[in-house]
Write a structure and sequence with these properties.
With 137 residues, this protein is of the alpha/beta class. Helix content is 34%, strand content 20%. It has 4 helices and 6 strands; from the N terminus they run E-H-E-H-E-H-E-H-E-E. A 6-stranded parallel beta sheet has the order 1-3-2-4-5-6, with helices on both faces. Helix 3 packs parallel to helix 4. The termini are far apart.
Length: 137
């Protein structure tokens, strides 16, 4: 991988092509009502991954982002994320999406990998391995 370039990997390709990179499931809406925020969230994640990669990656491993459309129904998103986690394709999850999707993803991954949830939300969420960054009321 080129220095300064972060890869966004299709989930299907990520399952088929092994990588030494740290693969993070990026769950953002690219469809549905919140699809409008998807491009901005993707660009921010790519910028962050590029900065990490420019500084040597995570423990010497480059970061790759595996895009999951968080604009679909929560159960669909959660099933895809759970399969990616279960197969070892991704080692962490980060997302900006609706709270109903978050709740389904949290239940599906069951604390097996870290999950960073960035947007403001209604509060009250507590689960092992889940890190809430957004403001709460």
């Amino acid at each position: 991988m080129l220095v300064g370039v972060a890869a966004i990997v299709d989930p299907f390709e990520a399952r088929l092509i092994p990588s030494d990179a740290v693969r993070i499931g990026l769950v953002v809406p690219v469809s549905g009502v919140l699809g409008l925020v998807g491009p901005c969230a993707i660009n921010c994640a790519v910028l962050a991954a590029e900065e990490v990669n420019d500084r040597g990656g995570v423990l010497g491993r480059q970061v790759e982002l595996v895009l999951v459309d968080g604009g679909r129904p929560g159960r669909v998103v959660a099933a895809e994320v759970a399969e990616l986690v279960g197969s070892g394709t991704i080692e962490a999850v980060a997302g900006t999406h609706a709270s109903d999707v978050r709740m389904d993803v949290v239940a599906a991954i069951g604390g097996r990998v870290p999950f960073v949830y960035a947007p403001p939300y209604e509060g009250g969420g507590h689960a092992p391995g889940v890190y809430f960054l957004g403001e709460t009321p």
